[in-house]
Amino acid sequence: MGAGRLVSDAAALEDAVRDLRVVDATSEAEAIAIVSRAESLKAALGAVQARATATFERLRTEAERERGVPEAARGRGVAHEIGLARRESPSRAARHVALARALVTDLPRTLRQMEDGTVGEWKASVVEKETAFLEPDKRREVDALIAEELPSLGDGQAGTLARHHAQRLDESGAAELTARNAEERGVWLRPGPVGMAHLTALLPIPEASRMRARLREAAAREVGSGRAGGRTLNQVEADTLVAWVDGGGAGDGAASAAARRGVDLTLVMTDETFLGGDEPGRIPGHGPIPASLARRMLTPEQAADVELRRLWIHPETGSVTKTDSRSRVLSPRLRNLVLVRDDVCATPYCGQPIVDSDHVKRHADGGATSVVNSSGLCRSCNLAKEAAGWEHARDGTTLTVRTPTGQVHSSDSGYLSRLDRAVGGARDPVAPSDDEATAPTDGTHPA
Hints:
The protein is mainly alpha-helical. The chain contains 17 helices and eleven strands.
């Protein structure tokens, strides 16, 4: 019986929650078990809310239809009442209403997984958002295709998987959505922490990826040259952006030159995509893009100042080509293979951008400097794994993490490479040699 079926009415629900208030733990393992179980219950309660919300909307619109309310005016106050019940704004409540409607009608497997406590409300909302442009039958097809892997994926990975299948099933719809979204491009300023502000730009992904790569390259060169003056990589990136917008460089010729140089950009695509099919392409760290957009990025006009790198993934196992090195640090090209394989931080459910490509088995303990003994991790997870009691183990595309309290969680980036049967680009098909040992310049470090 799923967690969502443990309660049958509002009174029983309140009693169940009241009982949880007195639960206390006597050990670390017990405390973690309570946290985990509570998360499952939250997911199940989200399913309860979703079903009740969808029922409320249906009953209200049916009643208004019977009263002769015009169709365009039916359900006008639904989001406002749901918002009051949830103590949220009407705009936020409207998103919950849309999610509830989609779960009940088009995403039944995702809803059942919420009821079972294995998929949370936010992850379900990510799936709903990524499939919103599909017709109901295709949306239900995506729901079925992702069901097996959904519980084990982080929120961002779930979005990547759902987006891939949605774009594959309706490439023309995805292309139209891309064109409509491009019309919404713009720049916004909003308040940040004291004395700071957030400057946000919404851009088409080719331009955004190119700008991000240029900023990162310029900042890395500044830090690597010793001219950063104690500033972090992120701080130098921010200062460089300001300098470029103001019309100058980042304070020296190297950064200005980086602004003018072409950039490396890895584009993952199948032969089917390259030859005109509907299989989406992928930019590691950004996720799937419609096949038509991937092909446009290969045209001379789009690729004039971008080096598109070709890599290869085993068509059956999904493993990145094995390229070992005798160095104790990963070369930039080996690191790129790890980035393509893992896409985002490999720690289960994390989903943050990869900063470090680190050994799974420490070099000091005999671990090889190779793709198969490396994981792409965010800085926080890389530091956490060095704490006492943490263990990482890799088997192909699967990373297994054991915590100090004995929890075992796994993530499998193979869902990406099973989608990416081959990796395209086109200028440099040569894989890194076994003895390539160039030290990285982007902040990676050995274990």
